[in-house]
Amino acid sequence: WGGALEAMDPEGAPPGSGLTEKQRQAVKDRFTAVNAAVDEASRSGQAEWRFPQPETARALRSATTQAVVAAYAAFYRRYKDSGFTRKHPEKYIKHSPEALGEIVSGLF
User: Fold this and answer.
1) Element (H or E) spanning 75, and its range?
2) pLDDT of the residue at 42
3) Cα(63)–Cα(59) distance, rounded to whole angstroms?
4) Which residues form the Exocyst complex subunit Exo70 C-terminal domain (predicted)?
5) What is d(CA 92, CA 25) in angstroms, rounded to the nearest whole number?
6) CATH of domain 2-106
């Protein structure tokens, strides 16, 4: 999840509105990186991880879900209505924060 969290980091991110063409492309690249991380986690077999102690699995699921979804929710809110893509927002915005939370929780 490091790559996804890095892509969603607000430090050095374009503003949420009034984007230049270069900034719009940067936002597209960030959404693409997040989507790739979600796809990779889903394919990597992370869903098959098993833990000897159920409390370990719960703690890891909770911490991961909380970190990833909180970062994504802020990122999503900042850019979903920013006009970073004019034609096909669904190409970049593949998940709502709630849907991403379900995906991440389901991986453990």
Assistant:
1) helix 54-79
2) 82
3) 6
4) 1-104
5) 11
6) 1.20.1280.170
